[in-house]
Amino acid sequence: MKDILTIPEDIFPRDLCTIPIDRTAVRFHRTSSPSVKNRIVINKNLFSFLLEGEKVLHRPGEPLKIHAGQFLLMAEGNSLMTEQLSTGGQYVSMLFFFDSTVLHDFFLKYPGLGKNAGHSFGQGEEPVVCFEGDAFIQNYVDSMQLMLEATPFLQEELQLLKLEELLLYLAANYPATLYSFRPSRQPDASDRQLKVAVEGNLDHTITVEELAFLCNMSLSTFKRKFARIYGLPPNKWLLQKRMELAADLLLHQREKPSEVYHKVGYENHSSFTQSFKQVYGVTPSEFQQGGGVLPDLNFYR
């Protein structure tokens, strides 16, 4: 299995790729094998309709969990994705990829649509937005499935027509959500985007290498930019911040150590205890029982 999956290219069967993937591409994705934090490079914006199972999407900021019946509009870029199977042992989604030029052409064609949202397309802040499915969306997905069963590659003109149908529906019914979407990406994350990625994942299990991937940076570039912004190496800063959060939960929320570790991004109790003792010199239980006083960790630098 590849360490990094590039989509849409890597999910189309090789024997069917005589037709190039141009401005749009559509494919149903089915699997009976769950995955955890696959590294995904998305080369086109896409709608992802979840039909069976659950998806956890790790983007800069808070991870997003969606269930069957919901769908996402996602900007091109790097992401970590976890796919969880349904009770029937399946994960099924429909993926509709498209270039940013397609979106811009659509809003140029229908310049009055933005009035419902109060601002212009492309001015939003979100690289991923979530929609709830409804009867129209279910019929839309069913129609796409029927067409793809007849031929795995739809004519681009037909794909563009179906995408326009979807966008018109969303612009009429969910204008604020649609216009909050930001389709373009930077070659590297800005300082603000890096801070969103880091600070939005303090209470989640994520490595420095995964954070660098989310920010579309090499590990060395990420570490250098991180140290410039925060004044500390990422591993040390993340450790201190997570232990400060743990100390607050133990002292002020009176939560048990066994209830805290997963809330600060640890997968097991023992590794959390070891890290806590490294910072505070005592175990979480000893710290809580003694009503410990928080030291000045001086990491707001």
What does this structure look like?
The protein is an alpha+beta fold and 301 residues long. The protein has 2 domains: 4-179, Jelly Rolls (Sandwich), CATH 2.60.120; 191-289, Homeodomain-like (Arc Repressor Mutant, subunit A, Orthogonal Bundle), CATH 1.10.10. It is 39% helix and 21% strand. The protein is built from 11 helices and 10 strands. The protein has helices spanning 100-109, 135-150, 156-173, 175-179, 191-199, 208-214, 219-230, 234-251, 257-260, 269-280, 284-289, and strands at 4-7, 24-31, 35-42, 45-52, 54-58, 64-67, 70-74, 77-84, 91-98, 128-132. The strands form 2 sheets. The protein has a 5-stranded mixed beta sheet with strand order 1-3-8-5-6, covered by helices on one side. The chain has a 5-stranded antiparallel beta sheet with strand order 2-9-4-7-10. Strand 5 and strand 6 (64-67) form a beta hairpin. Helix 6 (208-214) packs across helix 7 and helix 8 (234-251) packs across helix 10. The protein is elongated and about 70 Å long. Residues 294-301 have low confidence and may be disordered.
